[in-house]
Amino acid sequence: MLSSIEVKFIKQLEVGKKYLLKDAADIANLSLDAAKKAAMLLQQKGYLKIYETKEISYKLTEDGEKFLEEGFPEEKLLNLLEKTKDVEELKRTMGEDFSIAVSWLKKKGSVEIKDGKIFLLSRPKIPEKDVLKTVKEKGKVDEKFVEILKKRKLIEEVENKFFEVEILKKPSIIEDYIVEVTPELILSGAWRDKKFLAYDVRVQSKDVYGGKIHPYERIIRECRKIFLEMGFKEIKGHYVQTAFWNFDSLFQPQDHPARDMQDTFYLDKYVDLDEKLAEKVKIAHEKGVAGSTGWGGIWSLEKAKQLVMRTHTTTITIHYLARNPNPPQKAFCIDRVYRREAIDATHLPEFDQLEGVVLDEKVGFKHLLGLLKEFFAKMGFEEVRFRPGYFPYTEPSVEPEVYVDEIGWIELGGAGIFRKEVTEPLGIKGKVLAWGLGIGRLAMLKLGLKDLRKLYLPDLGWLRNARVRT
Amino acid sequence: MPVIRLYWRELEELVGVKRDVILKRISMLGCDVERVYEDYIDVEFFPNRPDLYSIEGVARALRGFLEIEKGLKDYKKSVKVDETKWKIFVESSVLDVRPRIAGCVAKNVKMSDEFIRSLISLQEDLHWTIGRNRRKMAIGIHDLSKISFPLIYKAVDSKFSFVPLDFNFKMTVEEILKDHPKGKAFSFILEGKEKFPMIIDSEGDAISFPPIINSEKTRVTEKTKDLFIDVTGFDENVDRALNIIACMLIDRGAEIESVVVHSSRFEVFPKLEAKVIEIERDEIYSLLGFKLNDEEIKDSLEKMRFGCEIGEKIKVFVPAYRVDVMHAWDVIEDIAIGLGYDKIIPEYPKTEGVASPHPWNEVKDLVKEVMIGLGFVEVLTFTLSNEKEMYVNMKRKAKPWENYVPLMHPLTSDHTLVRTSILPKLLGVLNFNKHHEVPQKIFEVGDVVRAMKNELHLAACITHPRTNFSEIRGYVQALMRDLGIPWDVKESEDEAFLEGRRADIIVNKEVVGTFGEINPEVLENFKIEMPVTAFEIDLSKIFDLGEIL
Question: Would you call A395 and B28 a contact, using CB atoms and an 8 Å cutoff?
Answer without folding.
Answer: no
